[in-house]
Design a protein that fits this description.
Radius of gyration: 29 Å
Shape: globular
Distance between the termini: 54 Å
Oligomer: single chain
CATH topology of one domain: Jelly Rolls
Strand content: 25-35%
Number of helices: 18
Number of strands: 44
CATH architecture of one domain: Sandwich
CATH class of one domain: Mainly Beta
Strand order of the largest sheet: 4-3-5-11-8-9
Length: 858
């Protein structure tokens, strides 16, 4: 397809010609090389019709635009889209070669930022190169292969299912689906083969920018910046490395720090072929980058010039360490330290944010980071089954002060580490990614994989496999050395979870943990009270399922299928939600699936009798309960426990039940605000252990917090016993025991219909609140229609009730910008939220309404 709107961009000696835009696209059921001249020659028009394709763009999206596919997020459409991954796809376009790329000494590279996945690239009828990795950019040397005037470029690719169909499947999470796609061999996002939270949909196509890069003698291929803070933080070494390919050339590498004026410039004699050089300068008394809540996430601006190519990079100076010293009770600590400060890590796991993951642009990255920061996160874990974080996403995290724990892209499978070609490809991939992301201060941990060590040690199907630990070398040596050599300012961890000292990877007393037993190994529903006794040192994956918001259900379910267990409902459901016992055996009698049984367990309600929207709300409220239990248990143990990171933050496609607090449409689920409160810098936690009731105050800030503690035992039907208000001071960066009384005093008040509450007050106004029950909501005798008084208190709205109210909901669809939502009312204890709107808030529903009332219209 002819492309007329071609423009040349100049940067002194090195130049760029964008090849984005309109291409021609078609498919073949068999190998496209059956008739290569049909597509690769210059003059004859292709016999097969070419549809217009906008590059970069997934093939699925192109087919949608031409009416050949429907939105795979809707109904059962993702099943109808599977033929796409089972075809070859051929792109074609022509372009006029720029004069500067045709000279006798010109060096010309064809660059593809992302090709999904196995591709052969033809230039003017000849094979110019091939690719086999969708996770990194590809650079093809086409020096001397361009012609004056019109050139023809053809890209023939497939998803990987053809090339690897006869390879051994090893073992992969997902069973037959992973065996079918051979995903362990495919260097692409692993979750595309299907995971519990996403249907199988293999992306395919030219998914990133395409361009020619050319220069008179040598093309810059890589620029990497590393900042190394001194142990005492008094200085920092700033190192810039440049790489180029082409002819022998004398070149200059310059670095200037815009904010300070520090600069360095050196000339180099670069040999023919691949060449590297580096410059270094020292910043004295650098201004440091801190994570959110610990200080300012300050960044410097580096101005870099190399062989005529000029770039600007934002970077930060920070020191990363992990305290793994001996724990006084058992095992070791695992405390992340930034700039010699202990940081309690709060956040969730991040996965690709769309079925068409390449369409998550800078704007959506910023929105997702904004929502994470709004929920008081300071860390996101980039899970190892997705893709590497993009420059835009890392930049947003740098700016917001949100740290990144980043897995390399390996998850829940046995990878062919014994295959020499595979290991070489992994090393090249790791070098490319680590160097590209080196300047981002938010990136604080590189981790070898997700759950491979755990699988090899603990999962029956892995332990019984004859393959053995074929990939152990990759994670304990190859990747560790890459990070050590290229990114020494970042901490490396071989697997997640992992326990040093030859202990089981899930050992709670050392290393990091994935605490899933409370959720996945309790028959008859999730008993999230089990979290209350967990002592994990660094939990970074564990979660609770909850139904999506009614608005999201309405968006992806056809109108005639908006009911539990319809075909589309079931297609979008999580298999862990559908199973009777997630890791147990099925009973002879048909029982409710796990997520549905959770609703029955905690409320006594039969999900089969609930309309879709009411079921969605009560399921969402129970997810909020579970995540709050998870978070508060770990926060009150700081720094014996040094994190509360849950599974997972965001979705990639619309689900019936999901693990997230923000769905794929960026709607806030009912758990979002309870998680936000649980992660607040100052929080209260009520616990019962060893015959006592204890109240903790948690202070993440680095300043003491002074205020009052109001606490007591309240009756669900109204009234407070043993109430008192005392002045308290919370130590900085610590959890402080504020009050304690014998549990027998609670039991004397009738613990079956009562709870214990704690409220921290600042200036007489609520700053944090928590409550504790030991009976489930269906057993508490909740008033289905409590009287709630709403009044204005300055620029705040005040809520009061004479009876206990479980989760006041001002929004159930997750579409409103609110200061708070899904909060409790303790009898006779006012609760306030910021409110500067003219109209007072409107309550849509409460958790109490499920025990006899209803949802009121807004």
């Amino acid at each position: 397809m002819r492309h007329r709107a071609v423009q040349e961009q100049r940067s002194d000696m090195q130049r760029i010609l964008s090849l984005n835009g309109n291409w021609g696209l078609t498919y073949a059921d068999g190998p496209p090389i059956a008739a290569p001249w049909e597509f690769t020659t210059l003059n004859p028009a292709p016999a097969r019709r070419l549809m217009t394709a906008e590059v970069p763009e997934p093939v699925h999206r192109t087919l949608e635009k031409h009416g050949l596919l429907d939105d795979p997020n809707f109904g059962m459409n993702s099943l109808r889209a599977r033929w796409v991954e089972e075809c070859y796809w051929i792109y074609r376009r022509t372009f006029t070669a720029p004069a500067g790329a045709l000279g006798p000494d010109a060096v010309v590279h064809l660059v593809f930022e992302r090709l999904e996945m196995l591709a052969k690239v033809y230039l003017n009828g000849e094979l110019a190169g091939s690719t086999a990795n969708a996770l990194v950019p590809h650079r093809i040397d086409v020096t001397g292969k361009l012609r004056e005037g019109e050139n023809t470029l053809v890209v023939a690719l497939e998803s990987g299912v053809f090339e690897y169909c006869d390879h051994p499947s090893k073992i992969s999470c997902g069973g037959e689906m992973g065996d079918l796609t051979k995903r362990a061999w495919l260097r692409k996002a692993q979750h595309q083969s299907g995971w519990d939270w996403q249907a199988r949909l293999q992306n395919v196509g030219i998914l990133g920018d395409v361009r020619l890069e050319y220069a008179p003698d040598s093309v810059v291929t890589e620029l990497s910046l590393v900042s190394l803070a001194a142990d005492d933080l008094s200085s920092a070494r700033i190192i810039v490395k440049g790489a180029a390919e082409g002819r022998a050339v004398r070149g200059t590498l310059k670095l200037r720090i815009a904010e300070t004026g520090n600069s360095v410039e050196e000339s180099f004699e670069l040999p023919e072929g691949h060449a590297q050089c580096a410059v270094e300068l020292t910043l004295d008394r650098p201004k440091l980058w801190f994570p959110r809540g610990a200080g300012e996430p300050f960044r410097y601006t580096a101005e870099i010039e190399f062989l005529g190519k000029r770039v600007t990079r934002k970077f930060g100076v920070r020191k990363v360490a992990v305290d793994q010293s001996e724990h006084p009770v058992e095992g070791t600590y695992f405390i992340l330290e930034i700039n010699n400060r202990r940081i309690f890590c709060k956040g969730g796991n991040f996965v690709p944010a769309d079925l068409y993951y390449s369409e998550v642009d800078a704007g959506r990255c910023r929105e997702l980071v904004r929502l994470a920061a709004g929920a008081n996160f300071n860390l996101l874990r980039i899970w190892g089954g997705g893709i590497y974080a993009t420059e835009e996403f890392c930049d947003a995290c740098d700016e917001a002060g949100i740290m990144l724990w980043h897995d390399f892209i390996f998850a829940c499978a046995k990878y062919p580490g014994e295959n020499e070609a595979f290991s070489r490809a992994v090393r090249k991939e790791a070098l490319t990614v680590v160097r590209a992301l080196n300047h981002h201060p938010s990136l604080v941990v590189w981790c070898g994989n997700n759950e491979l060590e755990l699988g090899n040690r603990s999962w029956r199907q892995y332990c019984d496999c004859e393959v053995g630990w074929s990939d152990h070398y990759i994670f304990h040596h190859l990747l560790a050395k890459v990070v050590h050599d290229e990114s020494p300012q970042v901490f490396y961890w071989p697997s997640s979870p992992y326990s040093p000292g030859f202990k089981e990877p899930s050992d709670p007393t050392t290393g990091d943990q994935h605490p899933w037993k409370a959720t996945l190994e309790t028959p008859g529903g999730t008993d999230f009270w089990t979290f209350r006794s967990y002592v994990d040192r660094f939990p970074n994956e564990g979660g609770v399922l909850g139904c999506s918001t009614p608005a999201t259900l309405r968006q992806f379910l056809p109108e005639n299928e908006r009911e539990l267990w319809s075909f589309s409902w079931d297609h979008h459901d999580n298999p862990f939600a559908r199973l009777e016992d997630t890791f147990g055996s099925f009973s002879p009698e048909r029982r409710l699936g796990h997520a549905y049984a959770t609703v029955e367990l905690w409320t006594g309600l039969d999900p089969r009798t609930l309309p879709m929207e009411r079921y969605a709300v009560v399921s969402g409220l129970l997810q909020a309960e579970g995540l709050e239990e998870y978070i508060m248990n770990y926060r009150r143990r700081m720094f014996s426990t040094a994190s509360a990171i849950f599974w997972m933050y965001n979705d990639s496609w619309p689900v019936t039940h999901g693990w997230t607090i923000v769905d794929c449409y960026r709607r806030k689920k009912l758990a979002y605000y309870p998680v936000k409160r649980a992660f607040a810098p100052v929080a209260a936690a009520v616990v019962s252990e060893h015959g006592s009731v204890k109240i903790f105050g948690v202070n993440d800030t680095f300043e003491p917090w002074s205020g009052e503690l109001r606490c007591g035992v309240f009756q669900v039907c109204g009234g407070i016993a043993r109430e008192r208000t005392i002045p308290v001071e919370l130590a900085p960066d610590a959890s402080t025991l504020l009050a304690e009384f014998p549990k027998s005093e609670w039991e004397a008040a009738g613990s079956g219909r009562s709870g214990v509450f704690a409220q921290l007050l600042s200036g007489g106004r609520p700053a944090a609140q928590h409550r504790l029950f030991e009976r489930r909501f269906g057993e508490l005798g909740l008033d289905p229609d409590p009287e709630i008084r709403i009044s204005r208190a300055g620029n705040r709205a005040r809520f009061e009730s004479g009876r206990y109210v479980w989760r006041v909901c001002l929004d159930i669809d997750g579409e409103c910008e609110l200061p708070d939502n899904a909060f409790d009312l303790i009898p006779g204890v006012p609760y306030e939220i910021p409110w500067d709107r003219e109209e007072l808030p409107v309550i849509l529903t409460t958790g109490n309404s499920f025990f006899g009332g209803g949802v009121r219209d807004a």
